[in-house]
Specification:
about 350 residues, alpha/beta, eight-stranded mixed sheet, binds adenosine-5'-diphosphate, binds magnesium ion
Length: about 350
């Protein structure tokens, strides 16, 4: 039986007000997440991943940012809630892990104090009990000496340990949803793997659903159940991770996949990377946002691309059928990438 729906994002569109008028950074983004699922949103830097996340959590600045669309968390429309109600949900039911642990931690307080404060913001519990919970949480996220670590200041910890402290804070109220924006980008490869393992363990032990934002297809293949590939403010492809790696539909996804070495088969002579850069909001084409960088672009790509479906997988691209298979072979060959 399918788990209940936890988060449902429908037609999320985000524009910034500028002196040149409104510029759109996120365009008609929809996805949903069931309890305990891991969804990865993947795309190059500048694709609109963080803006999507910040605005769906109501963390945007309403003076400069216009957010349209609907976001339902456990059936409640959270964007229409007053700030105070939204704040209660964030931190208690939704835990946030950011790319840079130093933005989540205050340098002047110990990590134990900060975790305890986070708990006390959402629960009626004594300072002593909150501190004891902080020690338990630090043990859970992998501190070998939590009784000592609880009195450490952020600058006394390594980058990896700081990120674990942030994760301890994010899970302190046992949230149903953890939202992690590039949580391992600033870490070296070994520590990256440990942090990903930790996220998987949190899902296993607490049933937490996770939205994991990354630019790394390797990370996606290791942890996600579902993937949404984002480019120029749109989700250009989505599907179950296994399906998407088996049969990627969108040329942008092919480019991302070509940038990770295959696990099996012959390594291609060179990695086919995608030339150029994602467009800035304000200069995103009306039609397919990827067309200017796509070697298969055709005249019709100036129009908004159709949604091609393949089972429960879909892609925003004009290519279909044999033509798509042929073009994909040019980029990915006949390799297995999953
Ligand atoms: N407040 C803002 N005002 C104007 N442009 C912004 C603002 N925040 C982000 N952007 C732009 O929106 C685009 C998407 O940003 P972002 O969501 O941070 O990308 P990602 O997280 O995928 O790297 C980028 O080009 C970024 O410069
Ligand atoms: Mg980002």
């Amino acid at each position: 039986m399918e788990k209940p729906l936890l988060l449902d994002v429908n037609g999320l569109t985000v524009s910034f007000r500028t002196d040149r008028g409104d510029i759109r950074a996120v365009d008609d983004v929809s996805f949903s997440l069931r309890e305990g699922e891991i969804l990865s949103i993947v795309g190059e830097s500048g694709s609109g991943k963080s803006v999507t996340l910040q605005s769906l959590l109501g963390l945007h600045d309403p003076k400069t940012t216009r957010v349209d669309g609907a976001v339902a968390f456990r059936g409640k429309r959270i964007l229409d809630m007053p700030q105070s109600a939204m704040r209660r949900i964030r931190g208690k039911e939704i835990g946030l892990i950011s790319q840079d642990p130093m933005t989540a931690l205050t340098p002047v307080y110990t990590i134990g104090w900060q975790i305890a404060e986070q708990i006390r913001e959402h629960e009626r519990i004594s300072a002593r009990a909150a501190r004891a919970r902080a020690v338990e949480l630090l043990a859970e996220v992998g501190f070998s000496n939590p009784n000592e670590a609880v009195d450490r200041f952020p600058h006394q910890l390594s980058g990896g340990m700081r990120q674990r402290a942030v994760i301890a804070m994010a899970i302190s109220c046992q949230p149903a949803l953890l939202v992690a924006d590039e949580p391992t980008t600033a870490l070296d490869v070994t520590v990256q793997a440990q942090v990903l393992d930790l996220l998987l363990r949190l899902r296993r032990d607490h049933g937490a659903a996770i939205i994991l934002i990354t630019h790394d297809m390797g990370v996606v293949s290791e942890v996600a159940d579902h993937v949404a590939v984002m480019y120029a403010g749109r989700i250009v492809e989505r599907g179950k991770t296994a399906d998407l790696f088996d049969n990627p539909l969108h040329p942008y996804t092919w480019g991302l996949m070509a940038s990770i070495p295959p696990l099996t088969g012959v390594r291609p002579d060179r990695l086919v990377s995608i030339g150029g850069m994602p467009p800035l909001p304000g200069s995103i084409p009306e039609g397919c946002g990827f067309a200017p960088r796509c070697r298969f672009a055709q005249a019709d790509c100036r129009k908004r691309p159709p949604q091609r479906r393949h089972g429960d997988q879909s892609a925003l691209c004009i290519l279909d059928g044999d033509e798509r298979l042929e073009k994909r072979r040019e980029i990915l060959g006949a390799q297995e990438y999953a």
